[in-house]
Amino acid sequence: MKNAGEKRKLSLLQTKDGSFTLIDEDLGETYHSRHGAVTESNDVYIEKGLDFFVNSSFKNPVNVLEIGLGTGLNASLSAIYSIKHSVSLQYFALEPYPLPMEYCKLPENILLEFRHIWRAIQNAPWNVNVQIHPSFLLQKINRKMEDYFMEHEAIDLDYFDAFAPKYQSEIWNVEVFSKIHTFMRHKGILTTYCANGQVRRNLTAAGFKVERLTGPPGKREMLRAIKS
Fold first, then answer.
1. DSSP letter string over 124-149?
2. 3 touches 94 (CB < 8 A)
3. What H or E segment, with its residue span, contains residue 102?
4. Which end of the chain is more exposed for a tag (fewer CB within 10 A), N or C?
5. Where are the beta strands (DSSP E) in the chain?
6. How far apart are CA 77 and CA 121, in angstroms?
7. pLDDT band at residue 141, thresholds of 50, 70 and 90?
8. CA dist 80 to 36, 110, 157, 178, 184, Å?
């Protein structure tokens, strides 16, 4: 990954479900799936993460930690879920390299009804709590996961949405997963699009019970890990 001061070459790409993602031209890597940015986020993080947790271990509020805020898509879909289902979320989103606003494009065909939520998330200042909606409290945190600490057993759900291990190997290791495990409450859940065998072994070594699930379009599998 580039340092904060280095300029990245980014371009917009319309994915197969009509929503947009970004390509890091230097890496050749997209921020979300080319098969559908919103489709992937809904499948991996909302349906198999947030909704699964709410229906299995419901509590209010649900504390969410996202590793990789990126364009703010996962945060926006989570806020919409909280509004539609009357679930209060406290949402902590780590992003060491914030994107320029012009690259955070509203998926109008999906989120037009909630564009005010999308804009509020994009415009929220960093490193302070912002009440985006009565049911959605957001803190965008300009820090790497390796340098981040919080209270033990404070997190219910982790969205692990960093770049793939071959591009960002330093964050997919046992040490980082062990730190997340420490942050989590009993029966807390981690979801990620990545089903890499080494990632699965690292999660297990960190104390998680790991299951492989059917992935979103374009991916055979994804992972969900539970703190038992």
1. PPBTSEEEEETTEEEEEE-S-GGG--
2. no
3. none
4. C
5. 10-14, 20-24, 29-30, 62-67, 89-94, 129-133, 136-141, 155-160, 184-192, 208-214, 221-227
6. 11
7. very high
8. 18, 11, 17, 30, 23
- pTM beyond 0.85: yes
Q: How many CA atoms lie within 13 A of 196 on its CB side?
A: 13
CA distance 223 to 214: 9
- Tell me: cis bond preceding 216? Omega within 30 of 0 counts: no
β-bridge mates for residue 129, sequence order:
139
* Residue 127 buriedness (CB in 10 A; 0-12 / 13-18 / 19+): exposed
Residue written as token pair 């998330």: 121
Q: Enter the tokens of residue 9.
A: 């070459």
Looking at the predicted structure, is the pLDDT value of residue 204 above 90? yes
Distance CA 122, CA 106 (A): 10
**Distance, CA of 183 to CA of 226 (rounded, Å):** 13
Say if residue 188's pLDDT is above 60: yes
Q: What is the dihedral of CA 168, 170, 175, 181, to 10 degrees?
A: -20
